[in-house]
Structures are given as structure tokens and as C-alpha cells.
From TrEMBL:
This is Trehalose operon repressor. NCBIfam families: trehalos_R_Bsub (TIGR02404). Residues 8-76 form the HTH gntR-type domain. GO terms for biological process: negative regulation of DNA-templated transcription.
């Protein structure tokens, strides 16, 4: 079957079509995609265009190119989350090319820092802090719970609508906050009542927790976020190169 595409950004359209077919199971995990020659005929395009589309699929973690065998479809039921780097969830969603992710804000408002948060931020107990609790629904299941706290002294105004969209987009584009670096800790913890309330945990009794301590350029810690993930759906990845 020949699939018609427009001329502009043709390789991106091919990438999106193949990506959708991988996600909906047309091309299943561990299957080999049609060869470059077959794809060239299917999409009525050049081999170079097909290679660009396949390269993009590989960059998104959807296929693995195997020398002499073709392109192996990877398990996309697990999403890759980078350990290094500082990106917003919206940016991560865009980089993965996924449209099936929904954000729900469960709790939002100002609170006075309790002893735990005052210790993390090194502020007085009476310090005002924004509290934002959001779940992420992917492929119909709530599998991430983000619990975020922001110093009101650095973020004077925040709304539920902003939290439903992209907090970082607002912080950088509207408030022009110079967000610079983060320290991250990854631990496995027993599920809490809050996890059970806001996540579809199935029979899992533990979650993977990524603790993010986010700083401005002057080294001020202005955000602390716990990102709580269902065990079976995620792997955390990084790239490392040994120094010569």
C-alpha cells in the first residue's frame, strides 16, 4: 500500500505515521520494521528521507537499528526519562512525540512550610510556599504523581491554569526566572495513601521517586519536586562516555 504524503517535512510525517503505528501496536515490540526499500515504496519517497525518519524514531527510543537486520521495534510501554538534564514535563512530552498524556491538578494553593519543607528550603516554618499536586495520565492510566513546592518569594503568582499547562514555560517566559541547575535523587519508596488516591497502582506497593532540588543562577533553591512513578512503566536513562 502506498501512503501519500505532502512535500514539506516529509520525513517528519513519515516519522509521525510510523510512531503512531508503533504505539497502537500495528508494529509490535521486537518486530522488525519493513526494510528501507519497502518503506521507500510505501511512502513514495527517497531512501534518504526514510533514513531521516528512522533516525528520528531511534532518537526518540522507539526503534533500535540493527546492522544487517533492520529496525527493531522497542517497548514503548516504558517511557524514557533522562536522569541528567533539566527539562519540564511538557518539553519531555514534546520530545517523545506523544499526544496521549493528560495532566490533572489535584491540589493547588499556598501553604506555610512545615518542618520538612523548611529544612529543605532552609527557611522559617511560617514561609509561604506554593503547593501543587498533579497526576499524569498516559495511555489511560495515571502513572506519575508530581508533588511540587515553590517559594512564593521567588514565584509571587501562580494559578491552577498555569499548573495544568507548563509551570516552567510561565516561570521562564513570564517571570523570567534564571533557572540554572538541579540536584536529583532517585529512590524506591513504599506507596503512600496519596499515591493510592491519585495513581492507578494495580498491585504495586512501591513507587520510584525522583526528588528534584532546583536552583536559580545565584544558587537559590526555589523548587522542590517529588516525581512519583509506577514501577512497571518507566526506565530512567542517561548517556555516559568514558574519558580517554
Amino acid at each position: 500500500m502506498v501512503i501519500l504524503m505532502t512535500k514539506s517535512n516529509k520525513y517528519k510525517q513519515i516519522f509521525e505515521d510510523l510512531s503512531e503505528k508503533i504505539q497502537n501496536g500495528t508494529y509490535k515490540t521486537n518486530a522488525i520494521l519493513p526494510s528501507e526499500n519497502e518503506l521507500t515504496g510505501m511512502y513514495s519517497t527517497s531512501r534518504e528521507t526514510i533514513r531521516k525518519a528512522l533516525t528520528l524514531l531511534a532518537q526518540k527510543g522507539m526503534i533500535q537499528k540493527l546492522r544487517g537486520k533492520g529496525s527493531l521495534v522497542l517497548d514503548v510501554s516504558r517511557l524514557n526519562f533522562p536522569v541528567s538534564g533539566l527539562v519540564s514535563f511538557k518539553e519531555l512530552q514534546s520530545s517523545m512525540g506523544r499526544e496521549d498524556i493528560e495532566t490533572t491538578v489535584h491540589e493547588f494553593g499556598l501553604m506555610n512550610a512545615d518542618s520538612s519543607l523548611s529544612s529543605i528550603f532552609e527557611v522559617a516554618d511560617s514561609t509561604e510556599i506554593w503547593n501543587v499536586v498533579r497526576s499524569r495520565r498516559i495511555q489511560g492510566e495515571r502513572i506519575i504523581l508530581d508533588k511540587s513546592y515553590f517559594l512564593k518569594s521567588q514565584v509571587p503568582l501562580l494559578t491552577k491554569e498555569i499548573c495544568e499547562n507548563s509551570i516552567y514555560e510561565y516561570l521562564e517566559d513570564e517571570l523570567e526566572l534564571p533557572i540554572d541547575f538541579a540536584k536529583k535523587e532517585i529512590v524506591v519508596e513504599a506507596c503512600t495513601d496519596e499515591d493510592r488516591k491519585y495513581l492507578d497502582l494495580d498491585d504495586y506497593d512501591h513507587v520510584v521517586v525522583v526528588k528534584n532540588y532546583v536552583h536559580l543562577k545565584d544558587a537559590t533553591l526555589f523548587e522542590y519536586t517529588e516525581s512519583r512513578h509506577r514501577l512497571d512503566k518507566f526506565r530512567f536513562v542517561d548517556f555516559a562516555r568514558r574519558k580517554n
